[in-house]
Structure formats: C-alpha cells, structure tokens
Amino acid sequence: MALAVLVVSWTKRVWAPVETFPEFPHIAGMSKDALANLTSAVTTINTPMPVGIDEATLLACLKGEILERKWRVHVQALFDEVDVSVIHQLVVDHIVTFDELSKAIDAWQVTESENERWVREMASFEVGRPPGEGIGRAR
User: Fold this and answer.
1) Which of 62, 113, 131, 133 could, after both became Cys, cross-link 104 (CB 3.0–4.6 A)?
2) Do 47 and 73 touch, CB atoms closer than 8 A?
C-alpha cells in the first residue's frame, strides 16, 4: 500500500509509507478510511494551533501512553472542536474505545463540552461490534 502519513519522531518529521513504522502500532494496521477520519480530526485540532499534533501522538495521548502537558490543549480540542460524528467513527473503526476516551478526559482534565458529556454517556454502556464483526469482516 502506498498510503503516506506524516510521522513525527522526537527529532524530525518525515513522510513515509505507514507500514514501515512498526513503532506506531495504532497507525500501522489502520484502514485507509479509518486513517482518513483520524486525519480529519487532527486537521480540525491543528487548524488554530501554533504547533500541531500528528495522528500517532494524538492516539498515544488518548490511550494513556503519552501524558506530556504540552498536548493537553490538543486533546481538549478533540472534544471541543471535532464533530461528534468523527469521534464516533474513531470508535466504530476500533481506533479507540469510549472507555479509553473517557479515561483520556479524566487524565487530561478536559473541561466540560458537549462531546465530553456524550463520550461519558456512551462509555457507561459501551456500544459497538467486536472486531470480528466489524465492517471489514468476511461474509
């Protein structure tokens, strides 16, 4: 697959095929549509920011793998600025779970927003299909 993504290492930015970056497991196995949805969320988040966040870093922040304070405003923007349908699609695509999003809200001390309340409500009764019953399954 020739799908390319901006990957930020700690030292530089590079464009490269997703498959060549096994250190970013959240990105490496992602479908083209899922990556496009995630990229749209990141684009919305980065639009007003002086320093942007990339897809891999955002996912690591949401999954509790990165807790650097400098990313807080970006995580807050996910819940404030990104349309709820995009956040929902992240869950449908099995990129994150509502439970992970709820934990991220607590860890990053996200202040009240409509999406924050909605995520907490959804996490309280976790919906969705198991990965074996996802969109891409064989029929």
Assistant:
1) 62
2) no
Q: Domain for residue 62, yes or no?
A: yes
In a domain, 15, yes or no: no
Q: Rounded to an integer, what distance in angstroms lies between the CA atom of residue 57 and that of residue 137?
A: 28
Overall number of domains in the chain: 1
Is this model's pTM higher than 0.90 or not?
no
Residue 8 falls within a domain, yes or no? Answer: no
What is the reported pLDDT for 58?
Answer: 96
What digits encode the pLDDT tens for the residues 87-99? 999 999 999 999 9
Helix (H) or strand (E) holding 13: strand 13-17
* Structural domain for 72, as ranges: 25-133
For residue 34, being part of any structural domain is answered with: yes
Question: For residues 23 and 20, what is the distance between their CA atoms, to the nearest angstrom?
Answer: 9
